[in-house]
Automatic annotation (TrEMBL):
The keyword Flavoprotein does not apply. It comes from Noviherbaspirillum album. NCBIfam families: PRK10754.1. The lineage of its organism: Bacteria, Pseudomonadati, Pseudomonadota, Betaproteobacteria, Burkholderiales. Residues 11-322 form the Enoyl reductase (ER) domain. The keyword ATP-binding does not apply. This is Quinone oxidoreductase. SUPFAM superfamilies: GroES-like, NAD(P)-binding Rossmann-fold domains. It comes from the Bacteria. Keywords: NADP, Oxidoreductase.
Length: 324
């Protein structure tokens, strides 16, 4: 028996229960992993509240790092004793140990500790595909990135700096602005005291930006479109403030033939070769010290409800991990 978080109904943080569960042996294509650390991400809130439906009862958590305890039939890229990390479906990382599909799990370099591995996979791989594939950045661009002091945001700040990209980042406080700037964000905008559309136009001398990376959703969507230059790309990769409301395609035409995409990590990493390449790119950035993963909050697994409360109230910065 191991301790794990389970939900029997969707709702607030109180629906998460800390219980004993049986963890059996891995079947074909599966491994059993013993977690050393578990990542906390906003997607966990979407599953908990039912915004992303799943059969109940269910586990939560998409990200973790630890050691392979057992390997099922047909698994050739991993063996017992391997140090591993992952950010993949199905949910279930909120546990001391779990059986899971091996296809979404990669070996963790010895130079990267388990806590960093658990904190970086979902957020780091997200920045990797956003910057390398969704709208490939070559260097010299000016971009807008919302929530620049969050877990994804702080990695994006550092990655943009490494690429020679001018990043404009929105934040919710002066303290978060200072944090984002310290990590490489060129310009910060406090959306509680400034109009971010006006500030982006001011910073870019009225031109706008070629791409906006927006994980906020409802509250920023139309404003983000207004920040784009003609033929610009709106990358809507999250909805922390709620789902983007329905809109007409004329909204894109009237602003200069804009493009829009709603990408997910799981589409970009669905092929094993792509996942391996993405992880290698991320690991290289961390090992070269171009990116430092900021773990600013740690919670015991049993205290996950408080972790969700703090995440939803935007009290957290950088990455957050749960310790089993």
């Amino acid at each position: 028996m191991v301790k794990a978080i389970r939900i029997n109904a969707v709702g607030g943080p109180e629906v998460m229960e800390y219980v004993d569960v049986e963890v059996g042996d891995p079947g074909p294509g599966e491994i059993r992993v013993r977690h050393a650390a578990i990542g906390l991400n906003y997607i966990d809130v979407y599953f908990r509240t039912g915004a992303y439906p799943q059969p109940l009862p269910a586990g939560l958590g998409m990200e973790g790092a630890g050691t392979v305890e057992a390997v099922g039939e047909g698994v050739s890229h991993l063996k017992e004793g391997d140090r591993v990390a992952y950010a993949t479906r199905p949910p279930g990382a909120y546990a001391e140990a779990r059986v899971m599909p091996a296809a979404g799990v990669v070996k963790l370099p010895k130079s990267i500790d388990f806590e960093t591995g658990a904190a970086m996979m979902l957020q780091g791989l997200t920045v990797q595909y956003l910057f390398r594939r969704t709208f490939p950045l070559r260097g010299g661009e000016t971009i807008l990135f919302h929530a620049a002091a969050g877990g994804v945001g702080l990695i994006a700040c550092q990655w943009a700096r490494a690429l020679g990209v001018t990043m404009i980042g929105t934040v919710g406080s002066d303290e978060k602005a200072a944090l984002a700037k310290a990590h490489g964000c060129t310009h910060t905008i406090n959306y509680n005291t400034e109009n971010f559309v006006e500030r982006v136009r001011e910073i870019t001398n009225g031109k706008g930006v070629p791409v906006v990376y927006d994980s906020i959703g409802k509250d920023t969507f139309l404003g983000s479109l207004d920040c784009l230059s003609p033929l610009g790309m709106m990358v809507s990769f999250g909805s922390a403030s709620g789902a983007v409301p329905p809109f007409g395609l004329q909204e894109l035409a009237s602003r200069g033939s804009l493009f829009i995409t709603r990408p997910t990590l799981f589409s970009y990493s669905a092929k094993r070769e792509d996942l391996e390449n993405m992880a290698a790119d991320l690991f290289a950035m961390v090992e070269s010290h171009k990116i430092k993963i900021e773990i600013n909050q740690r919670y015991a697994l049993k205290d996950v409800a408080q972790a969700h409360i703090d995440l939803e109230s935007r009290k957290t910065t950088g990455s957050t991990i749960l310790l089993p």
